[in-house]
UniProtKB/TrEMBL annotation:
This is NAD-binding oxidoreductase. It comes from the Bacteria. Residues 2-102 form the FAD-binding FR-type domain. Pfam families: NAD_binding_1 (PF00175). InterPro entries: Cyt_c3_hydrogenase_gsu, FAD-bd_FR_type, Flavoprot_Pyr_Nucl_cyt_Rdtase, FNR_nucleotide-bd, OxRdtase_FAD/NAD-bd, Riboflavin_synthase-like_b-brl.
Length: 230
């Protein structure tokens, strides 16, 4: 049974086509300091709605008082959350799941795979890696979206690259957008570099996760080096 606490909506803003960034203020609650690992998730609920799980999109911060979430406009609860005005109370559970084991990636190349709203669980990994970038080898983010307008945190991608994180973006449904970049699924763009000593963190829909894991297996990455955020 979840341990519920009352946070309040601090801000919300469009993040990409069909995606909204929601910031909750947890100041004064027992939740402060409970987010320990990037990739952990919580349950949110509103009166009369069934709770849903959402990854915390901001990095762990021992004294942090704000948690960010990336909401996809699908389902009753997400649709209700993304229309709440600032100051509205939202019930939040304690963080769940082990998150991503950054300690196991130290000294290795790190492969990050995200599709759609799955970037919400990978974003805090990147923030944590930046705090001690020297502890890791090459870091590459493979980020897939349906359309060019569906990449959340688009404004942060250049900063990530400037901080020595290679960003590979691919669009599965470019349509008539004029997109000049890569197309198809993330696992199709691993390139030719050796991956045997790499560690991989993966977050996205089940079919994407399975496809990535199969491709990594073919490239010599053992299953023990591939981690999901649950």
């Amino acid at each position: 049974m979840s341990d519920w606490h009352t946070a309040t909506v601090q801000a919300r803003a469009p993040a990409a086509d069909g995606l909204t960034d929601l910031v909750l203020d947890i100041q004064g609650t027992a939740l402060v300091g409970t987010h320990a690992h990037p990739g952990q998730y919580v349950r949110l609920r509103l009166p009369g709605q069934q709770p849903c799980m959402f990854a915390i999109a901001s990095p762990p911060a021992p004294q942090g008082t704000r948690w960010e979430f990336l909401l996809k406009d699908e389902g009753a609860l997400p649709s209700a959350l993304l229309h709440l005005p600032p100051g509205t109370p939202v019930e939040v559970s304690r963080p769940e799941g082990p998150g991503f084991p950054l300690v196991k990636a130290r000294g290795h190349d790190l492969l990050l795979f995200a599709s759609g709203s799955g970037i919400s669980a990978i974003r805090p990994v990147i923030a944590s890696v930046h705090q001690e970038r020297h502890a890791y080898g090459r870091v590459t983010l493979y980020f897939g979206a349906r359309t060019p307008g569906s990449f959340a945190y688009a404004g942060e991608l250049e900063r990530w690259q400037a901080d020595d994180v290679r960003v590979v973006r691919t669009v599965s449904r470019p349509g008539a957008s004029g997109w000049q970049g890569l197309t198809g699924y993330v696992q199709a763009h691993l390139g030719e570099e050796p991956l045997e000593d790499a560690v991989a963190f993966v977050c996205g829909p089940a079919d994407m996760v399975q496809g990535v894991m199969a491709q990594l297996r073919q490239r010599g990455v053992p299953q023990s080096a591939v981690f999901l955020n649950y």
